[in-house]
Amino acid sequence: GRLLESDGALAGRRVLVTAGPTREAIDPVRYVTNHSSGRMGVALAAAAWRRSANVTLVAGPLQVPVPAGVRVVPVESTQQMHDAVAAELPEADALVMAAAPSDFRPANVASQKIKRGAGALSIELTPNDDILAGTRERRRDGAVIVGFALETTDLEANARRKLASKGLDLIVLNDATEPGAGFGVDTNRVTFLTPDGAVAPQALLPKGEVADAILDRVAALLAARGV
Ligand code: CTP
Ligand code: CA
Questions:
Q1: What integer pLDDT is reported at residue 1 of this predicted model?
Q2: For the DNA/pantothenate metabolism flavoprotein C-terminal domain, which residue ranges apply (predicted)?
Q3: Which of 14, 116, 154, 223 would you call most buried, defined as having the most Cβ atoms within 10 angstroms of its Cβ?
């Protein structure tokens, strides 16, 4: 197998990972969500645990089992995920934000089940806060922050904008139109973008190997910063 000098760099480090979609309530029985399964975040948490990191997984509703040895903080909504990340982040040496939080929630949550009526139903959606941007001041000095970007057009330009606006050390770009990459599959083809302008396309790999490539970058950055 692979053996890198930076492999030991995550031992004992606190690694905070987010995974999965969120659910935004419409009424007591219905919600708004997306196709995220949680596979990429779970693969990251498992890979970090294999490197002897102290792993916390903030998880929306997952379609895959959570890895053994990982402390899980279950959440449902984007607001709950925001609050959980804000609470955990001050202790984290690295944050890997693999979740797909819903960008919107219903403006009003009906307290009773909405009944079928004669005509159409409109649901007004209001924007959720950006978790990465909104928790910036809670990051430890030197903490390594990784985000993802799921794009269908202008892939690199959009990812680079997110890298800067969210204050990231690394963004993992996913092309949502490519087969074998993205939601619900066990493989992923990603591109790494960094603040130095570098663009590093990765091979189509099982999500566990994508996770290891991401953690190699995290470990190298922590080692370089002396964290
Ligand atoms: N993210 C976040 N808070 C949100 C939405 C997304 O922190 N409310 C994080 C994701 O976990 C991911 C990164 O931001 O690491 C980019 O998510 P993405 O959905 O690609 O970007 P958005 O900023 O939500 O922009 P858009 O969906 O409009 O492309
Ligand atoms: Ca989004």
A1: 47
A2: 10-220
A3: 14
* Closest by Cα among 190, 186, 191, 179 to 207: 186
Distance CA 170, CA 57 (A): 19
pLDDT tens track for 9-43: 899 999 999 999 999 999 999 999 999 999 999 99
DSSP single-letter state for residue 137? G
The residues carrying an active-site annotation are 34
Does the pLDDT of residue 87 top 70, yes or no? yes
Q: pTM to 2 decimals?
A: 0.95
Residue 186, marked binder: no
Calculate how far, in angstroms, residue 110's C-alpha sits from the geometric centre of ligand 1: 26
CB 145 within 8 A of CB 139: yes
Torsion of CA 169, 220, 16, 209, to 10 degrees: 100
Question: Residue 179 corresponds to which tokens in the numbers above?
Answer: 């087969």
Helix, strand or coil, per DSSP, at residue 148: strand
